[in-house]
Amino acid sequence: MLKIISVFGTRPEAIKMAPLIKELDGNTDINSKVCVTAQHRDMLDQVLNYFDIKPDYDLNIMSSRQTLSQITSRVLLGMDDVLEREKPDLVLVHGDTTTTFAAALSAYYHKVMVGHVEAGLRTHDKFFPYPEEMNRRLTAPLADMHFAPTASAKANLLDEGIAEGSIYVTGNTVIDALKWTVKEGHLFENQALNDVDYKSYRVITMTAHRRENWGKPLENICYAVLDIVQRYKDVLVIYPVHLNPAVRDVVFKILGSAERVMLLDPLSMVDMHNLIKRSYFVMTDSGGLQEEVPSLGKPVLVLRDVTERPEAVEAGTVRLVGTEKEVIVKNVMKLLDDQAEYARMANAINPYGDGYASKRIVQAIKYKFGLTAEKPEEFMPQV
């Protein structure tokens, strides 16, 4: 049997790897193992529990105020034992976290093949997003199989000299995950969300936590939110706030007593997806939400100056608004005041997937290892 170890450590990775792990488990010619680093602990465990994924290995590396160097070194040391014991045929990593790069490096040290899920995203600025951009770039030359979600991600890899035969355009597995999580009549685990009057308020769901936005940019974002709720009495902003003190200290200082601003602890994956479904639109500096939200028919204002996901900007589902207060407010007002503009963004084609990315990835792996003669067809968004 083909032995594959999937390695991930954060909630976003877990959400996107879960449907792939389920697909791997459904193949009798694949021995699928799971190793979590727990770069994030509680938020990771929420997803594992929801999808009923029981890791074979848990490195449990998370510590308070951990540094990037500490994460990298702990993953490298922890993966030594896993790879020496299992001797897998392939290690699967996902996306752009420090776990991703460190696990790929460890696999390389052990001369194990690496498959990179969600490969090829680029901003071409090594500090935006930080450290994610370089995690992706450094993982690429270590990988033997590159599962690019879109044609433009494939083009980025080709530009860097990655062999075309090692690249598979699959769509993004996060679209697969939404089929598991979004349900009509969902009852929220967070009771405060069940009490919201979604008919009376236009709900804006917001997240902001990225390292490059710490400090002044995050302050600007929060003051923009204050301005918005003061201007529009029918707007309610729901902001699940990251647990990092660098984020919470700023957010609660500025928005802690604001009317019609709900500051919550981070939500479970299923609560977040269903909240987005009930929202008017989303403001975020997240990478993954730029892919998830358009699938739910909602516009996205991205609180960043650059994005490694330009396809949604080109398609019109996403708009980059940066972190300047006046620019954020202007763009929010346009969506709130201009129904035609809102409809244009809400109804744009989502370029990221059709719900079958996991099947394509598994078929590509089986093709690579000679378990099938059929190479998967590339994902092409419907026009």
TrEMBL record:
SUPFAM superfamilies: UDP-Glycosyltransferase/glycogen phosphorylase. It holds the Pfam family Epimerase_2. InterPro entries: UDP_GlcNAc_Epimerase_2_dom, WecB-like. GO terms for molecular function: UDP-N-acetylglucosamine 2-epimerase activity. Residues 22-366 form the UDP-N-acetylglucosamine 2-epimerase domain. Belongs to the UDP-N-acetylglucosamine 2-epimerase family. This is UDP-N-acetylglucosamine 2-epimerase (non-hydrolyzing). It comes from Caldanaerobius fijiensis DSM 17918. The lineage of its organism: Bacteria, Bacillati, Bacillota, Clostridia, Thermoanaerobacterales.
